[in-house]
Amino acid sequence: MTAFPAALCEQIGLEGPALSAAMTAFRREQRTLGSLLKNPRARFLPLCGRALLRDKAAGAAFALAAALAVADTYTRAQYRKRGIPDTVYIASLRDIVLWVRDAEWADGVAGLCNAPWIAHTLFLELFWIGRLQFEFSKTDYRQARLPKSARKTAPFPDGAPVLNVHIPASGPLCLPDAIASFAAAQDFFCSYFPEYAFAGFVCDSWLLDERNRSFMRPDSNILQFFSAFDLVVQTRRKNRELLRRLWGKRRAGKRTLAALEEKTSLQRAAKAYLLSGGKSYNGYGFRMPQKSGINPG
Q1: 285 three-class SS
Q2: Is 283 strand, coil or helix?
Q3: What residues of the chain score a pLDDT lower than 70?
Q4: Average pLDDT score over the chain
Q5: Residue 162 φ then ψ, to 5°
Q6: Among residues 84, 81, 71, 80, which one has the least CA distance to residue 37?
Q7: Nearest Cα to 285, choosing from 220, 228, 218?
Q8: Are 258 and 252 in contact (CB under 8 A)?
Q9: H or E, element range at 297
Q10: Which of 238, 239, 237, 230 is nearest to 154 (CA)?
Q11: Of 69, 72, 173, 178, most Cβ neighbours within 10 A?
Q12: Residue range 113-172, pLDDT digits in tens
C-alpha cells in the first residue's frame, strides 16, 4: 500500500477536518485500500457505497481516502500514459474539494459522499478545462425528457457521441470564460483523445431553464450563459438544483422555504419565485464544434 498522498492534497487544496478524516481513514483501512488498488475500476464504487450505507460519517471519510488513493496511483498513471499535462490532472482533481465542501454543507460530514460523480474524474471520463467540465457521453433524449418535437429537430442524432458540459460550483460563471473553455476543450480532446469523434457539446442543466428569466436579472451570468449555445430547448425534467445549489437543500416545504436565508440578491429573488409556486426544470443546450479543431466523424 502506498503512503498517504499528502502532496496531492496540498496541490488540490484539500485541508481542514476532511483532510484529517481522510488521513485517519487511510491509516485505518490499509488492507481494504490495498485491495482496492488492485482493481480500482471494479472496486471503487462498491466499496464506497457499502461504507456510506453503514455509516455516513465514517463512510464519507473512507470514500475520500479511497478517491485520493486511486487518484494518486491509477489516475496519475493513466494521465501520464496519455501524455496529458499535470495541470489538467490537478485541475480535474480539484473537483474532489468541491464535493467535500458539498458533503459538509448538505450532509454535515467531513469527507466525500458523491463517489459516483468523482469516479468520472478518477477513471478519465471527465476533465476540468478552464471554467467548465467536459464528460464523454452520448445523447439520450428520452432520459433527458426532451419533447418529441425537439428530438426531431436536434442538431445531433440520438445516441451520438458528444461532450457533456458541467458547470462546477467554483465561482462566477462568466460568458467569456465559458467560451474559452469550449475552445480549450475542443483542442484538448482532439489532441489527447483523437479516436473520440464527437458530434459537439451538450449541456443538460437547471442553468438553462427559461423559467430563470422570470426571477433573474437579464444581465446575470447565468442568463448570459444561454448565448454560449447554438440552440437551447426546454425539457420536461424537474429538478431540485435551485434549492441545492443556493441553500444546500434537497427538498423544502413552504415553512422551510420561508425560513431560507437571503444573503444574496439571487437567493432573495429565487426564494420569492419558489414561494409563489415557481418550479425549476432543466434546459438542454447544443453547441456545434468549431471546424478548425473538430475530430473527423
Answers
A1: strand
A2: strand
A3: 1, 292-297
A4: 94
A5: -140, 175
A6: 71
A7: 228
A8: no
A9: none
A10: 230
A11: 69
A12: 999 999 999 999 999 999 999 999 999 999 999 999 999 999 999 999 999 999 998 989
- 19 phi and psi angles, rounded to 5 deg: -60, -45
Three cell numbers, residue 174: 462568466
What one-character DSSP code corresponds to residue 237? Answer: E
Q: Please choose, from the candidates 133, 128, 135, 63, the residue with its C-alpha nearest in 3D space to the C-alpha of residue 90.
A: 128
**CA nearest neighbour of 242 among 288, 277, 206, 278:** 206
Amino acid 182 reads F
Q: Measure the CA–CA gap between 209 and 212, rounded to whole angstroms.
A: 6
- What span, in angstroms and rounded, lies between the C-alpha atoms of 134 and 184? 11
Q: Quick one: cell of 120?
A: 468520472
Task: Report pLDDT for 69.
Answer: 98
pTM for this prediction? 0.93
pLDDT at residue number 292: 58
Query: Per this entry, what is the length of the chain?
Result: 297
CA 239 to chain centre: 15
Beta strands in the chain (DSSP E): 126-129, 132-138, 161-166, 201-205, 231-238, 281-287
Q: Which cell is 182 given?
A: 469550449
CA 289 from centre of chain: 21
C-alpha cell at 237: 425534467
What's the CA gap between 126 and 230, in Å, rounded? 23
